Amino acid sequence: SFDGPAAIPETCTMRLLMRYLILLAFALTATIANADPKEREGWKVHPTGLGYAELIDRVKAATSKNRMGVVTQAGPTDAAKSRGVTIPGNRVIGVFNNVFAVEMLAASESAMIEAPVRFYVTEQADGAATLSYKTPSHVFAPYADDSPEVMKIAARLDEVFAKIAEAAIN
């Protein structure tokens, strides 16, 4: 006869709970692994055959070759791993330089909240990585009324970001 939950040995209960949590973790990992980022208004999305770490290295190298600097980097992948959670590679790389910063400040102090402009490297289910970014002209468009220079600077940045992306993926 079964006397209810109190009759189940504690070790059995813990094993069942652990199995449930492991299955839940696998389900969540499968949910997090998604398709390439979507093309959206103002976005450029470049699926590649490159691995995640390789694409990050190539973005950094292309950034430097185009006289820009990697200003910030952030992503949840390593922190999740340290907690025992496995998610696909995910890194945001902020890129800018002081020449553009000084020019943009002169055109619109408010627009500088958008700097650095970011590249987004994501690992796909097949192990290949995708490079995505919002074009600088899209990022800075809300500040176009501040000065005609804002969009001129953004257009020049569009060219630089396209060159960085092209060098990174080819």
**Multimerization state:** single chain
Give the topology string: H per helix, E per strand. Answer: HEHEHEHEEHH
- Beta-strand fraction estimate: 15-25%
Low-confidence stretches: 23-33
| Count of extended strands | 5
Question: Your description of this structure?
Answer:
By secondary structure, the chain is an alpha+beta fold. It is built from six helices and five strands; from the N terminus they run αβαβαβαββαα. The chain has helices at residues 10-32, 52-65, 77-82, 98-107, 136-140, 148-169; strands spanning 43-51, 69-74, 90-96, 117-123, 128-134. The chain has a five-stranded antiparallel β-sheet. β4 (117-123) and β5 (128-134) form a beta hairpin. The termini are far apart.
Describe the structure using short key phrases.
21% strand, elongated, single chain, alpha+beta, 6 helices
In short:
With 170 residues, the chain is an alpha+beta fold. It has helices at 10-32, 52-65, 77-82, 98-107, 136-140, 148-169; strands at residues 43-51, 69-74, 90-96, 117-123, 128-134. It has a five-stranded antiparallel β-sheet with strand order 1-5-4-3-2.
